TrEMBL record:
CDD domains: PaaI_thioesterase (cd03443). The keyword Zinc-finger does not apply. Its EC number is 3.1.2.2. GO terms for molecular function: hydrolase activity. Belongs to the THEM4/THEM5 thioesterase family. It is found in: Cell projection, Ruffle membrane; Cytoplasm; Membrane. It catalyses: (5Z,8Z,11Z,14Z)-eicosatetraenoyl-CoA + H2O = (5Z,8Z,11Z,14Z)-eicosatetraenoate + CoA + H(+); hexadecanoyl-CoA + H2O = hexadecanoate + CoA + H(+); dodecanoyl-CoA + H2O = dodecanoate + CoA + H(+); decanoyl-CoA + H2O = decanoate + CoA + H(+). Its main location: membrane. It comes from Streptomyces asoensis. GO terms for biological process: fatty acid metabolic process. Residues 1-26 are annotated as: Disordered. InterPro entries: HotDog_dom_sf, THEM4/THEM5_acyl-CoA_thioest, Thioestr_dom. Residues 76-145 form the Thioesterase domain. This is Acyl-coenzyme A thioesterase THEM4.
């Protein structure tokens, strides 16, 4: 990935475009974590994802922990955090292959309460690809011991930059239609 260098935050500022998407490459942290729009100003993943990489077998591996700010019950993660981080990390698998996609469907199994501020791991792989659809699955485990805490599977649909332009046009039409009411 072409970059313009690493700033004080350790976030690499890209200057290239993803092949085939026409979209600017998203910034990555020193740990290789692609930052979404909401996390760019902070320069870190607010969900607590610290490292991400693609291994030789094509499996994406993440190191993370649930920040205390996402605590639900005492010392355990809010289920919304678990679902959000699984959505985010499963969607990073196409990104790691240079492909932009959006979540079309997501199913989450909450196997055990997820402790906050403990090292966790997440493995993500593609079960299969059909046309523009990626069928992706993943498993979250406690880093020491490997006990399974949560599983997720879903469908991601590949997109290019026209996705956002179409959405903006659709939204403008909705706003216009309601203004006369
Ligand atoms: C400027 C930007 C920078 C970028 C930076 C990024 C960086 C960071 C990363 C951040 C990333 C954040 C990412 C996020 O946060 S994603 C956020 C959550 N997800 C969304 O917002 C998606 C909202 N939904 C949609 O936009 C549409 O409904 C989609 C795109 C999903 C389908 O719309 P549409 O129907 O018009 O698409 P199509 O006609 O081209 O169909 C395509 C294919 O898909 C099949 N299909 C469709 N739906 C489903 C379904 N539910 N189950 C199974 N399959 C489904 C369909 O049959 C067809 O199959 P085939 O005929 O090809 O076989």
């Amino acid at each position: 990935m072409p970059t313009t260098g690493t700033g004080e935050s350790g976030v690499t500022a890209p200057n290239g475009h993803w092949a085939g998407t026409g979209l600017p490459e998203p910034p990555r942290t020193a740990g290789g974590v692609t930052l979404c729009g909401g996390c760019r100003a902070l320069g870190a993943c607010r969900l607590g994802v610290e490292r991400e990489r693609l291994d030789e077998g094509g499996v994406a591996r993440f190191e993370l922990s649930c920040p205390r700010s996402h605590e639900g019950g005492p010392d355990v993660a809010h289920g919304g955090w678990t679902a959000a981080v699984l959505d985010d990390c499963l969607g990073h698998l196409p990104l790691l292959h240079g492909v932009m996609s959006v979540t079309a469907e997501l199913t989450v199994s909450f196997v055990k309460p997820v402790p906050v501020e403990r090292p966790l791991e997440l493995r993500v792989w593609a079960d299969r690809r059909e046309g523009s659809r990626w069928y992706i699955a993943g498993e979250m485990t406690l880093a020491p011991g490997g006990a399974v805490l949560a599983r997720a599977s879903g469908i991601w649909v590949t997109r290019d930059r026209s996705h956002y332009a179409r959405h903006a046009k659709w939204l403008a039409g909705q706003v216009e239609a309601t203004e006369g009411q």
